[in-house]
């Protein structure tokens, strides 16, 4: 199998290079090889390859910057994605794509299901939803994985930021009225690989499995509780902090204004994914504890 992996240097893309390696030959392209802001180049480069599968982990993810950088966010998250879908349809191959909880308004009390009405409140969310629609309307075979609160060993993330701030500042305030499930890029990549195996084994997959799925860790936590969890683990490892877990202050979203509106509820139900692919998502603490065990070792 020849797999075209796009966005290979991002958090999810980097883990996908590992998880997809046993499945076949990987053509891993980052921004230097395929710039999604240049649609002519995207078309030309896609036409030069005949992969058996396209996995798109490329995206414009600067949520706040997107509020003013509207054109680039649209090009990357929507227009270029439409070209990928068209190419997948032309070749008769599957397209794997990643989306976000930001396609919802965050006002639902329980976990969002795939059938819930989308109502993005930010430019980022609107362009990601437009990318979903482009794939769905193209007619290509596809798996769209919506995920949330993604973190990885590679690059920056909330846990790293909290550890840094707690070691530098005398106080730490964190939003407590937004909830979700921290989801490891490692988990996303591993689940993707398992789903790919399934769709290539199932002769009826094009009709029975093609669609949108929520892919997130199990459970829920607020950003405030998340920060406390991270600092508690740091304390257990005797990492020197100026602010300990008990001293973190809870604040409301209204007290921490940012350009892009965040969903208050980012909980995603993964029942559809679990039933279709016979997978059981681990609790969010599972991968986070592994991440912290590795990351905190550098502080010693």
Quick rundown:
This protein has 300 residues and is an alpha/beta fold. The chain has ten helices and twelve strands. The chain has helices at residues 11-19, 39-47, 70-91, 123-138, 158-168, 185-201, 205-208, 223-236, 271-277, 284-296, and strands at 2-6, 25-29, 53-56, 94-100, 141-147, 150-151, 173-175, 179-180, 183-184, 211-214, 221-222, 249-251.
What summary fits the major beta sheet? Answer: 6 strands, parallel
Shape: globular
The residue fraction in helices comes out at 40-55%
What assembly state would you assign to the polypeptide chains in this entry? single chain
Q: Helical stretch count? A: 10
The portion of residues forming beta strands comes to: 15-25%
Overall pLDDT:
96
Query: Structural class of the helices, strands and pairings?
Result: alpha/beta
SSE run: EHEHEHEHEEHEEEHHEEHEHH
How are the strands ordered across the major sheet? 2-1-3-4-5-10
Number-wise, the strands total 12
Low-confidence stretches: none
User: What distance separates the N and C termini?
Assistant: 43 Å
Radius of gyration: 19 Å
Keywords:
single chain; alpha/beta; 15% strand; 300 residues; two-stranded parallel sheet; 6-stranded parallel β-sheet
Please describe the topology of this protein.
Elements: E1 2-6, H1 11-19, E2 25-29, H2 39-47, E3 53-56, H3 70-91, E4 94-100, H4 123-138, E5 141-147, E6 150-151, H5 158-168, E7 173-175, E8 179-180, E9 183-184, H6 185-201, H7 205-208, E10 211-214, E11 221-222, H8 223-236, E12 249-251, H9 271-277, H10 284-296
Parallel strand pairs: 1-2, 1-3, 3-4, 4-5, 5-10, 6-9, 7-12
Antiparallel strand pairs: 8-11
Helix pairs in contact: 1-6, 2-3, 3-4, 5-8
């Amino acid at each position: 199998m020849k797999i075209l992996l796009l966005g290979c240097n991002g958090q999810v893309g980097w883990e996908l290079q590992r998880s997809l390696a046993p499945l076949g030959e990987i053509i891993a392209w980052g921004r230097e090889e395929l710039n999604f802001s240049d649609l002519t180049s995207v078309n030309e480069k896609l036409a030069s390859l005949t992969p058996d599968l396209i996995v798109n982990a490329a995206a414009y993810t600067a949520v706040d910057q997107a509020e003013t950088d509207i054109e680039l966010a649209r090009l990357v998250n929507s227009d270029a994605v439409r070209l990928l879908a068209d190419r997948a349809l032309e070749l008769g191959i599957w397209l794997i794509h990643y989306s976000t909880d930001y396609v919802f308004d965050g006002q639902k009390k329980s976990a969002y299901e795939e059938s819930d009405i989308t109502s993005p409140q930010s430019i980022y969310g609107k362009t990601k939803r437009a990318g979903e629609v482009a794939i769905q309307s193209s007619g290509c075979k596809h798996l769209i994985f919506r995920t949330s609160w993604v973190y990885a060993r590679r690059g920056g993330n909330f846990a790293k930021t909290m550890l840094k701030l707690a070691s530098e500042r005398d106080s730490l305030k964190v939003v407590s009225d937004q909830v979700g499930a921290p989801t490891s890029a490692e988990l996303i990549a591993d689940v993707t690989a398992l789903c790919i195996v399934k769709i290539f084994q199932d002769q009826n997959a094009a009709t029975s499995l093609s669609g949108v799925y929520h892919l997130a860790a199990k459970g829920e936590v607020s950003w405030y509780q998340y920060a406390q969890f991270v600092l508690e683990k740091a304390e257990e490892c005797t990492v020197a902090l100026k602010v300990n877990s008990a001293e973190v202050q809870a604040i409301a979203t209204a007290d921490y204004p940012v350009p892009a509106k965040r969903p208050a509820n980012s909980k995603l139900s993964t029942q559809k994914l679990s039933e279709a692919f016979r997978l059981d998502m681990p609790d969010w603490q599972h991968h986070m504890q592994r991440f912290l065990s590795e990351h905190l070792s550098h502080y010693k």
